[in-house]
Amino acid sequence: MKHILSGYPIQRPRRLREKAVLRDMVREFHLRPEDLIYPLFAVPGKDVVNPVSSMPGVCQLSVDNIVKEAVDAYKAGVRAVELFGIPPEKDEVASGAYDPNGIVQEAVKAVKDACPELYVITDVCLCQYTNHGHCGIVNGGCVLNDPSLDYLARTAVSHAEAGADMVAPSDMMDGRVGAIRDSLDEAGFEGVPIMSYSAKYASAFYGPFREAAESSPKWGDRRSYQMDPGNSTEALRETALDIQEGCDIIMVKPGLAYLDIVRRLKETFDLPVAVYNVSGEYSMVKAAAAQGWIDEKRITLEILLSMKRAGADLIISYHAKDAIRWMNE
Fold first, then answer.
1. Which of 21, 126, 310, 315 is deepest in the core (most CB within 10 A)?
2. Residue 188's pLDDT band (boundaries 50, 70, 90)?
């Protein structure tokens, strides 16, 4: 009894840390290849490889090279990709987003033809396709919510028709999950899941992505539809609405600065939780590693594991292919 009450020296937590095999056996959280989703950016043309200056190792790729990268990633252990598209032309109504022969639709078909086993998710948004760079239809300097829903739903259906396994609306328009679910079901795609960007914040961490996707707003910002970084409970309201409207997976974006939100969603809702390890997070790691200030492999795996520990079931990450290679070493 004396030893139990006194703790040390009977209780020695270091016993469980002494051997690597035992550390692995008692580890509470594990990062697995199947946890990771690899984003890719499709652009028009042939044999195109455009490096994204702010995201070392990330490139805009023409469809032929998207296929090569997707197949290579699958062979490396990646099981899912998320496709983003940059159209040859942009207009007021984002017609390239729902064009049956649009860039994402073409990429989906090509990837599924080349590698049917690879799970293909598509980003559903309008910002890459509008000439103003906003995520919805604009009139008089305002982003209109309800008129945007039909365009988003048409985009999701066109992706499903091309062969997408899942659609992921990222626009943050109110009601878009319900509109997409209804349209998918009416088109015969009841089995296509929706991964909703449920808690997407108006974050400064998106800068490099906007270079990669060529999606910066031409005026204003996105604070009227993306969430304020100071809010937490609002994430629960947004997510509850998306679940009521029929989403299958909920998501928090960005990752590192919002792990408390990941934890709140995981503890509140009984659905898989995804988190987006966004471009700014990726670029900071790459920049510090290039200076020799950090160990890129160790810090990347530690960051991804922190997202799992917070409650994420799935992680969208530009590190995905490298991380899986490092896990297998």
1. 126
2. very high
Q: How many domains is the chain built from?
A: 1
- Per the annotation, does 279 bind a ligand? yes
309 is in an annotated binding site: no
Is there a domain that residue 270 lies in?
Answer: no
* Region label for 162, one of left (φ > 0), alpha (ψ between -120 and 50) or beta (otherwise): alpha
First-to-last alpha carbon distance for the chain, in angstroms, is: 46
Residue 247 assigned as binding residue:
no
Domain containing residue 176: CATH number: 3.20.20.70
41, part of any domain: yes
Query: In the chain, where do the E strands start and end?
Result: 36-43, 49-51, 59-62, 80-85, 119-124, 137-139, 142-144, 166-169, 195-200, 249-253, 273-277, 314-317
- 38 annotated ligand binder: no
Q: Is 200 a catalytic residue?
A: yes
Alpha-carbon span 168 to 86, nearest angstrom: 16
Residue 185 maps to a domain: yes
127 annotated binding-site participant: yes
pLDDT single digits (tens) 38-97: 999 999 999 999 999 999 999 999 999 999 999 999 999 999 999 999 999 999 999 999
Q: pTM value?
A: 0.95
- Is 210 marked within a binding site? yes
Q: Which residue in 211, 204, 284 sits closest to 51, CA to CA?
A: 211
Residues 6 or more apart in contact with residue 5 via CB below 8 angstroms: none
Query: Which DSSP string do the residues of 249-305 spell out, in sequence order?
Result: EEEEESSGGGHHHHHHHHHH-SS-EEEEE-HHHHHHHHHHHHTTSS-HHHHHHHHHH
Domain of residue 64 covers 36-247
Q: Say if CB 306 and CB 22 are below 8 A apart.
A: no
Asked if residue 190 is part of any domain, the answer here is yes
* C-alpha to C-alpha distance for 210 and 193, rounded to whole angstroms: 26
Q: Which of 75, 90, 218, 253 is catalytic?
A: 253
